[in-house]
Amino acid sequence: MRALLTRAAAAVQLRKFMGVLAIWVITLFYVLFQGGKTSFMLFIMVSVLILYLFIGGLEGVRRARGSRSFYSEQDKPDLLYAGGYLKVKLDVTIPGFLPLPYVIVREILKRHNGESWVFEESLIPNMGGRGELLFQTPLLERGRYSFENTDILSEDIFGLMEHKGTFKAEGQFRVMPRAVVVPRWQLYERKARLSGPQVSLLQSRRETTQINGVRDYVYGDRLTRIHWNATAKTGEWKSKEFEHESVPRTILVLDGTSSGYYNSAQFELAVSITASLLGFGIRERIGIGLCCLDKHNKVFSPAEGNAERQKMIQYLIDINAEGKGPLINRLESVQRMFPKGSYFVLISPQSGRVVLDTLHWAENRGMTPSHIHVLHPSGKYRAGEWQNILHSHGVTGHSISTLQELPAVLGGDSVR
Q: Of 310, 291, 286, 292, nearest to 301 (Cα)?
């Protein structure tokens, strides 16, 4: 009996519960010392009320449970891109036979970097104690998200007591970085006018006339590449896949130095550039690797397969620009993972001597360096000024201020 009283008291506000209990004691004394039908009826009414509140504290929302499901326009609702949103459906079941006019459902969504959002909605359960809550998340940025414990709050029909229950409805999903399609990259074209003198000595990426298979259509594919038979059979646009000549491998080096970025938006741009270039490598079947100089230095060896690329993208989901220390010192610790003769592409907001020293470090180790400068309006150099400095040192350079301009800048259609 003591355990039941403890559970009931824990589910309600103690001050209000003690107040109602005091009223019951007064009516009891009223019956004992006064007697009569009036006092007895009053005592019965208060006792029934106490019993109702007691049962409500034991049952109802304290034993609530639920399940969660996600809905999205994409094929995989648990994996979407930054800038999207999810529709969340929460099915709630509240056991018990006491009527509940409504309940308050409180949800907390947490991001991997500590940010959180609170969703609070009212829900009217049916006679069986079941209800369905639908809500939509805000536009989400790159990261890993999970729902915390769900709180269910209710009041009795008199509004005297507030009951609270908690349950865990599993719900995790990931938001991938923004990415754009890059049809061309001058780095792989022979004698490109934005390439340094060392790049013109390397073989360019050329397609042979040998068909290697069929792939999904990518925006920008020429009409002659479309595989009409496969398109007719599947009902979706398909393109021919040709074999390519050999090309040097590429290592993308993402600078995660915390002091190098003006704000989080600039770092998100750097991550999106990296994700877009990884997508280019998969479409063109180029061996592209990834080196993240973040809180921990992580290197993925250059690979052409989609499985390896997915591992790189998954790693990009969680990084937060927490790196510290000079770039060269951190590169020295993982230099054995860099293949000689490869392209070394530094994606960084930094400029000046620290970047030049890093690019020369890569060149001295047999790699072909280039720099993708992630711009910010308050930067030391303008886009053209920094590119001129890089070209004077025989290094390819591009300056990017928005993700949408990445395809044009890398393809040479727009020189900044």
A: 291
Angle between helices 14-33 and 37-58 (to 10 degrees): 150
Helix boundaries (H) for 34-161: 37-58
Give the number of other Cβ atoms within 10 Å of residue 146's Cβ: 14
Tokens linked to 357: 């020293």
pLDDT tens-digit map of 322-364:
888 889 989 988 888 888 888 999 999 988 899 999 999 999 9
Alpha-carbon distance of 15 to 163, in angstroms, equals: 13
CB 41 within 8 A of CB 27: no
d(CA 177, CA 268): 8
pLDDT band at 380 (very low <50, low <70, confident <90, very high): low
Residue 191 CA, distance from chain mean position: 39
88-92, 199-203, 375-379: least confidently modelled range: 199-203
> In what helix (H) or strand (E) does residue 123 lie, and over which residues does it extend?
strand 116-123
Token pair 């290697």 is at which residue? 212
User: What pLDDT score does 74 carry?
Assistant: 62
Do residues 328 and 359 lie in contact, with contact meaning Cβ atoms separated by under 8 Å?
Answer: no
Distance CA 231, CA 236 (A): 5
**DSSP H helical ranges for 161-319:** 228-234, 264-283, 306-318
User: From CA 342, how far away is CA 286, in angstroms rounded?
Assistant: 11
Question: What average pLDDT does this structure show over 145-157?
Answer: 82
Prediction pTM value? 0.71
Angle between helix 2-11 and helix 14-33 axes, rounded to 10 deg: 120
**Token pair listed for 136:** 């939509």
Rounded to the nearest 5 degrees, what angle is found at the Cα of 147, between the Cα atoms of 144 and 148? 125
Mean pLDDT value across residues 366-377: 87
How far apart (Å, rounded) are the C-alpha atoms in residues 397 and 372? 6
User: Which residue stretches of 285-348 are H helix?
Assistant: 306-318, 327-332
**CA 153/CA 164 separation, integer angstroms:** 5
Task: Tell me how far apart the alpha carbons of residues 186 and 75 are, in angstroms, rounded to a whole number.
Answer: 33
